[in-house]
Amino acid sequence: MSTPSKDFKTNKKKKFFEVWIDEDLCKGCEICVDFCPTKVYENSDRINRRGYYQPKIEAEEKCTGCRLCEFLCPEIAIVIMEKQQ
User: What one-character-per-residue DSSP string does 34-62 give?
Assistant: First the structure.
């Protein structure tokens, strides 16, 4: 059995993700703001067409792609996609 090379961990590239919030679906529940482990989202004073305060994407570069926000969003208003490099 061969052993992994010493460079095994250094061969991994950091992945980057794009975050989208669908304004027409968001109801401003702030679950994404409360549960994001890396604090990608922030509360805002922006009101969407439905009359709800929509969270803003404050630190997209911190997104790890865990998709917790996407899974917890009751309105399915959040989409996380890996950026192609």
Answer: HH-TT--EE--S-B-TTS-B--EE--GGG
What is the rounded average pLDDT of the residues 45-62?
Answer: 95
Mean pLDDT of the chain: 90
Backbone phi, psi, residue 62, to 5°? -85, -10
Is the model's pLDDT at 7 over the cut of 70? no
Whole-structure pTM value? 0.79
Beta carbons of 35 and 22 less than 8 angstroms apart: no
Distances (CA, A) of 84 to 6, 12, 19, 23, 76: 27, 15, 14, 24, 23
Amino acid at 44: S
- Could you state, in order of their start, the residue ranges of all structural domains in the chain? 16-82
**Tokens in use for 38?**
């890396």
CATH architecture of 16-82: 2-Layer Sandwich (3.30)
